[in-house]
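Might I ask for a little of your time on a matter of protein folding? Here, with my thanks, is the record as I have it:
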Amino acid sequence: MKYVVVSGGVISGIGKGVLASSTGMLLKTLGLKTTSIKIDPYMNIDAGTMSPLEHGECFVLDDGGETDLDLGNYERYMNVTLTKDHNITTGKIYSYVISKERKGDYLGKTVQIVPHLTNAIQDWIERVARIPVDDSGMEPDVCIIELGGTVGDIESAPFVEALRQFQFRVGKENFCLIHVSLVPVIHGEQKTKPTQAAIKDLRSLGLNPDMIACRCAKELDQPTIQKIAMFCHVGPDQVVNVHDVETTYHIPLLLLSQNMMDYLSKRLQLEDISLGAEDKQRGEQLLAKWKDMAGTFGHAEQSVKIALVGKYTNLRDSYLSVIKSLEHSSMKCRTKLEILWVEATDLEVETQTADKNKFHQAWEKVSTADGIIVPGGFGTRGSEGMILAAKWARESNVPYLGICLGLQVATIEFARNVLGIKDGNSAEFLPELPEEKQIVVYMPEIDKENMGGTMRLGLRPTYFQEGTEWATIRKVYGNSDSVEERHRHRYEINPALIERLEEKGLCFVGRDETGNRCEIFELKDHPYYVATQYHPEYTSKVLGPSKPFLGLIAAAAGVMEPLLEGQFEYKGTADF
């Protein structure tokens, strides 16, 4: 097993996740099987209870793990299926060690950070790195490990020490460290001191970088590269220039152009890994498809405007998977994407009274959009604005996609204005609401006392119902009988109302295995009015877009028929 560690210095949010994902994707173009582990030095067990406005999106895996959003990057770029164990947090590792101590596994010894905690981290990495993550069922060849946070922070100290020891455990030829650093531009001059200081700190902790990935707004000058190489004790070919490019999808090609794979192949002796002709061919086809995809981004003649009506729009990382799914789909449909960000509360009557300009600007975006999406969320704030957006899309024949909460608010709107349940609402928003007014109800099996990991989580099947061959969403899914998608919710549509809703044209074309729980609805006689209780954004891949999102973009761009006819396939024959 080969290990590539990606660490970061100077500042957080420097792009370690994209670099780690891009490196893993490039290793796949060599025919290698890759996996990835994210280390998060926070005390939370997982990301499930953390606010999207503070931490960004909570990403959900097949096994129901609620993890850091970078695992979404790994899955999207590398086309792998990770588990909750691929996300190590301080909370997880301390809980694991304390649990062993309580059982007496340490035989009465004084339990310490070194060696007990650091050994546990190394054991965890070695165990998880060998878990198969693709359809081959085979052990990966290379594991990418991203160390979250900034090297030098007190929170990450045990993990840094564990990785220092780990390089000797697995051997130099199996361990490579890429350190991501910042090269700021001040008064037109590229400054190298922050990188020099970061590398000095890293070396003082016992880790020597094999490559230094320099983040800079502009392409690095050759003297800057030479200076970093000289003062950081690496060769110029070990300094990678990661300057700003058109999109993050161009980063793998940028790294490739700097012969990054040549260096890693020599450093890790990748040529010693036995590969078949089929593996190499698959890698070549992957690279061809990726180049085709990257070439279409931003260069299409047709454009499409999608209004994203949400409640966490102040931090756009809260909707990272939604954004990426829209991008994947727009690239597939050969269209330019423009996302119109709409804070849901700005659509409400109260905002009209308090700030008319904000109110009119929000409605201008919604009313001029080619399509509308209402993503997931929790709590009552902004719910009435989302309901109004769903009403506009329904009555104006504007393509609409609702996700989780987006399905629920659209159903509430339909119940109020078509069924005549004027005060209909969700039990989440109004817990004391009379039963006959509850359009959305709490799922009976959900734990109401504990918050972490207690929702309906993970990969679950959805079955298309008999007589739904007409449904556009089913056609976009390839006329499948069933689909498997990831869930994260506590509430569902009231089963007692389903028959009345369907009589008026809101058809629940997809349901769970019981036939009672609603998973997908589609409105008849509408260009595309679709919503899902599950989160299709969690399974979208760069070269394999999420089907509900693909349907939204195709409907908004007026290319649904060519899409269904298969006219938008990327070059290359192998599936990614």
User: Anything to note?
Assistant: The mean pLDDT is 92.
